[in-house]
Amino acid sequence: MKGIFTFMVAIMLSTPTFAADISGKVGIASDNIFRGVTMSDGIGYSAQGLVSLDNGIFAGAKVMSLNETSDLMTTTMVGYGFDLGGVDLNVAYVDRGYQGIDIDGWEEVGVSANFDLFGVYYAKGLDDAGDFYLVETSALKVVDVAYGDWDNAGSYIEVSKSFDLAGGSVKVGFIDHDNNDEDLLDKVQDVDNFYVGYSYKF
Fold first, then answer.
1. CA 129 to chain CA centroid, nearest Å
2. Is 202 inside any structural domain?
3. How many domains would you assign to the chain?
């Protein structure tokens, strides 16, 4: 599957006639949380970048700190986005891994659909990786609500609110995580906590 990533990047680099949009984001948070699970167990940092072509092809990368040492979680992706009847659709191949710790990464294919007031995302884990799905909505106006379920680490509900500050964005939220797999209790603990983070886009 990694050949797909290489192939898609090669296509991007070989199509200079298409305009490219390059963007990025850096952030700091009271806790780095991934799919409802605490990853940094304290102050966490992250950085990501995205290259999008006007033909719909995109590629991106992200690093996220796991703890106070140099351990990192890495994500690389390549995909295609398009509009279908006013709905934004994206399909992407995603490769997730770790640096500094002896934990195997995994690959998945993700599909997302974004409507006016809500979005859905489904990731099909490849090989033995678990599947993940997410439903989120801003219909309540006052707060955003999301529900996610991951075969590898249980389910969670997230309630959050974002607002602009100093050229960036502040997000405040609460995670209620339930690890319903007894075999994973020694790896992933239930998380019920508030968090706050700040990110700056460029």
1. 16
2. no
3. 1
Whose tokens are 């990533």? That residue is 5
CATH number at residue 142: 2.40.160.40
The residue behind tokens 């700040």 is 198
pTM: 0.84
Phi first, then psi: give them for residue 19, nearest 5 degrees: -75, 140
Q: Angle 49-1-187 (CA atoms, 0-180°, nearest 5)?
A: 75
**Of 22, 14, 7, the residue nearest 78 (C-alpha):** 7
- With a cut of 60, say whether residue 189 has pLDDT above it: no
Condensed to tens digits (0 to 9), the pLDDT of residues 42-70 reads 899 999 999 999 999 999 999 999 876 67
In order, the DSSP letters of 117-157 are SEEEEEEEE-TTPPPEEEEEE-TTSSSEEEEEEETTTEEEE
What are the two backbone dihedrals, phi and then psi, of residue 184, each rounded to the nearest 5 degrees?
-105, 0
- Is residue 29 included in any domain, yes or no? yes
Confidence of residue 37 (pLDDT cuts 50, 70, 90): confident
Is 190 contained in some domain? yes
**Domain extent at residue 16:** 2-195
Structure tokens at 103: 């934990």
Question: Tokens for 190?
Answer: 């239930």
